[in-house]
Design a protein that fits this description.
Spore Coat Polysaccharide Biosynthesis Protein SpsA, Chain A, 10-stranded mixed sheet, two-stranded antiparallel sheet
């Protein structure tokens, strides 16, 4: 199975310009993500790793840290559009294409390996993506974070076979009798989504060809376009250390929180 790991790294973020180059505890966010990609690629012979960007500043940084980089259009609407453009620029055929977000420096190192195995076992799935079941303390932290940055952190609902039913920037599901549930289990029923997508190649081509969907526009979540068009998203449940589920970077405020979490895990 021929796999490509593409890191879409856009400089011109509206909410956080230059986000991939933001420094986290003395290292750029992008360099941390590249290390994750390198670890994953080393486990699978022949796997391609590259960064896809629209900005020369990021391309220059990639040269400095020794990772291949492809310049893509400034018109890419989503990270997935950028991933497809990068893959097509190589002129090679891939079975499975993983978009490793350039703003996810705490992606669990084994997440990509789990995704590759999941796709090998279920190639009828259009997309593979990871989720984490939050501890109650992590759910409390997410609720607190959303008071300041309401669009940080995405939660998911899945069926009994692990296929995604819905994603939201709201915390779903709502929980009745929460006190009783806390007494019975250290883990909450809330699944937090990690913004890491692995596509069957033809599914990536189809997704990018689709217009933005109604709920995608409302929530700002590209995976809702997939669901609204009947695409099958298989989730992979990951186990991570306490606190790391909260380390996504969606705003400048998240950098300080990420540094605090990183310090706790050194």
């Amino acid at each position: 199975m021929k796999t490509a790991i593409i890191i879409p790294a856009r400089y011109g973020s509206t909410r956080f310009p230059g986000k991939p180059l933001a420094m986290i505890a003395g290292r750029s966010m992008l360099s941390r993500v590249v290390d994750i990609g390198r670890q994953a690629a080393a486990q699978h012979t022949g796997t391609t790793l590259m960064v896809a960007t629209e900005d020369k500043r990021i391309a220059d940084h990639c040269a400095g840290i020794g990772v291949d980089c492809v310049m893509t259009s400034d018109d890419c609407a989503t990270g997935s559009d950028r991933v497809l453009e990068a893959v097509q620029s190589t002129g090679q055929d891939y079975d499975f294409v993983i978009g490793l977000q350039g703003d996810a420096p705490f992606t669990p190192p084994d997440a990509i390996a789990h995704m590759i195995r999941a796709f090998a076992q279920d190639q009828d799935a259009d997309v593979i993506t990871p989720v984490i079941r939050l501890r109650w303390s992590e759910l409390d932290a997410l609720r607190t974070a959303k008071k300041i940055t309401p669009f940080s952190g995405t939660t998911a609902i899945i069926d009994e076979k692990g296929y995604a039913l819905w994603f939201s920037k709201n915390i779903i599901p709502a929980i009745r009798k929460e006190d009783a549930m806390r007494a019975d289990d250290d883990l909450s029923p809330v699944l937090q989504h990690i913004g890491l997508y692995g596509y069957r190649y033809d599914s990536l081509v189809r997704y990018v060809s689709l217009p933005q969907s109604r709920y995608e526009k409302l929530e700002g979540l590209e995976q809702l376009r997939m669901l609204e068009n009947g695409m099958r998203i298989k989730t992979v449940l990951l186990q991570v250390e306490a606190g790391l589920a909260q380390a996504g970077i969606d705003s400048p405020e998240d950098v300080a929180r990420a540094e605090k979490i990183l310090g706790a895990h050194l």
